[in-house]
């Protein structure tokens, strides 16, 4: 990984977990190991190409581990690394804030879910 200079430490954090999908991937992996197909099913709006790219970047940053099983067909699992587990407080705080934002915006999580289902 190329070493960079950061002007403020949050830049380093955002380099690792920034973007639309990385935090979502990490939150799913906080719940346990997942295969690529499981992540795709949990994140239906992400393209396969983007999922693969995000997983590679997270692996390169050292926050997830990729385990390849040599079988036919090949099986690949992803899980948080020990280093990745140190992101749990940050990810939990983001989830908590998101819940508060949903309630503030929609009145309740149930109202949000109801409106989401109706708009699908």
Please give a structural write-up.
The chain is mainly alpha-helical. It folds into two domains: 1-82, Winged helix-like DNA-binding domain superfamily/Winged helix DNA-binding domain (Arc Repressor Mutant, subunit A), CATH 1.10.10; 87-120, no CATH class. Helix content is 61%, strand content 12%. The chain has seven helices and three strands; from the N terminus they run H-H-E-H-H-E-E-H-H-H.
What is the topological layout?
Blueprint: H1 9-17, H2 22-30, E1 34-35, H3 36-42, H4 48-61, E2 64-69, E3 75-80, H5 82-85, H6 88-106, H7 109-119
Antiparallel strand pairs: 1-3, 2-3
Explain briefly what this protein structure is:
The chain has 120 residues and is mainly alpha-helical. It has 7 helices and 3 strands. The chain has a 3-stranded antiparallel β-sheet with strand order 1-3-2.
CATH superfamily of the largest domain: Winged helix-like DNA-binding domain superfamily/Winged helix DNA-binding domain
Would you give the CATH topology of the largest domain?
Arc Repressor Mutant, subunit A
Gyration radius, to the nearest Å? 16 Å
Level-1 CATH class name of the largest domain: Mainly Alpha
CATH architecture of the largest domain: Orthogonal Bundle
The spatial strand order of the largest sheet comes to 1-3-2
Overall pLDDT confidence: 90
Instruction: Please trace the helix and strand order, writing H or E for each element.
Output: HHEHHEEHHH
C-alpha geometry: globular
Q: What's the structural domain tally? A: 2
Share of β-strand residues? 5-15%
Largest sheet: 3 strands, antiparallel
- Work out the number of β strands: 3
| Count of separate DSSP helical elements | 7
């Amino acid at each position: 990984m190329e070493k960079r200079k950061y002007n403020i430490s949050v830049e380093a954090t955002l380099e690792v977990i920034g973007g639309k999908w990385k935090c979502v991937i990490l939150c799913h992996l906080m719940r346990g190991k997942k295969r690529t197909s499981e992540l795709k099913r949990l994140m239906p709006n992400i393209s396969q190409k983007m999922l693969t790219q995000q997983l590679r970047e997270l692996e390169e940053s050292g926050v997830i581990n990729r385990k390849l099983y040599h079988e036919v067909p090949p099986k690949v699992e992803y899980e948080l690394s020990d280093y990745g587990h140190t992101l749990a407080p940050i990810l939990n705080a983001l989830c908590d804030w998101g819940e508060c934002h949903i309630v503030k915006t929609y009145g309740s999580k149930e109202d949000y879910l109801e409106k989401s289902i109706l708009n699908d």
